[in-house]
Here is the input.
Amino acid sequence: MTNTSLPFTNVGISQIGFYIPQSYVEINELANARGIIPEKLTNGLGLRKMAVCKECETVDVLIANALEDLWKNAAKEGDDLDAFFKSVDRIYLGTESAMDGAKPTATYALDALSKRYEFDASHLDLLDMTFACVGTVDALQNCIDYVRLNPGRRCVVVAADVAKYDLHSGGEYTQGAGAIACLIEDNPAFVDYASIIGVDTKADFDFYKPYLKYGKRELAEELSALLSLTDEAREKLNTWLNPTQSPNDGKGNEGATNGLGTIPGEYFPVLRKEPVYNGAYSNACYRDRMDSALGRFLENSGADLQNFDGWVFHLPFCYQGRKIAVNFWYDRIWKVNSGLQQTMPELGEAPQADTKEFGLWMKGLSKTGDYQNFVREKIEPGEWLSAELGNMYTASIFFSLMGFFAQSTSDKLDILQLGYGSGSKSKVMAARLLGTAKDREMLRRRFQHALDKRQKLSIDEYERIHASY
Here is the structure.
């Protein structure tokens, strides 16, 4: 089924490379360790396994591995890495796991890759784009526009993140990690994109990673009292915490600190990988931003929502998409389709919106055969990798898209791609899945091989890694 009114650009994804961490935790075991009924996570949220990065699998290494995998699968026969990169103009990275406040994480990844292979990347335009989980969708849109203006040129869009939450927190079981690199060019082999995009943005604080600062004077006072320090020792501590000289590593690098006692200023800056978040509020932001972005996309494109063969989502947890989609399905498909309404007389008339009764009614609607059939046909194929890997922040929607592609049985499907980033923004796009049966089978085997070769971690080993990563 296709939306003939959509202006597809003939620019999109021709091949992908990816990397998933080599270790995982069984969700059943994590649930038991945390005193949670396992079925609440498996049957309720769709979780199966959670990817865990070991200390050597930093985000730059994830990106480098995904780029290496892209080269091995997309390059012409005999092309080394240098030849492959000569055909690429830019590498744009979407991530919220940045390694530096100024230097792009993409440059760290190229450095990691250069330690394995000799190649010249000096011509590449490198850039990080950050808007929580939707940053790579921004990078994709930007690179599609570049190729449209420069036919015959190529870009690489990379999504890479490590989702980390505090141990014993409500977000712990939704952790995950992964990286995916997409080759963007005209006459794409895998995915073509339409030019019309629906956007909705609002300055929410549903999930964020604030820069924190802790006063040195207060720290010194607390330590002095805790350790019963003498006045002389207290003064030494204050002097150590407040250096009078600019930090310098002795090699010409000014500003290079070496221990707490070399950090200048009145405060210690701290940036934690673990976010500050409000789960219920974030779900509401996710739903509201997507609803408005979807409305704008449909208004601007004139597309018929019922003509899409699949819906792929950013998935903070595996079943998030299907849980939220019932709202859109109800408003834009069920309410305008008298045939669907007649098949569900047991539900009765819908109560007033935004009431507790309406919420219960919608829960009943989500359990009907019609909606479950919709989920099974149009959402479930995109959930496969999320169930195995967990939340990958920016990479989640791209693994969802390519998981759907790998499992599809048709060579032309129109997919609705619904991205979301906390803070908050949604972007809705139309993607047309192309490719041959051989393309899909090869990708499916690549994914399955990567999943099968992982090693299972005990909960104790996982907690040790979590504390050190």
Q: What stands out?
A: The longest strand covers residues 8-19.
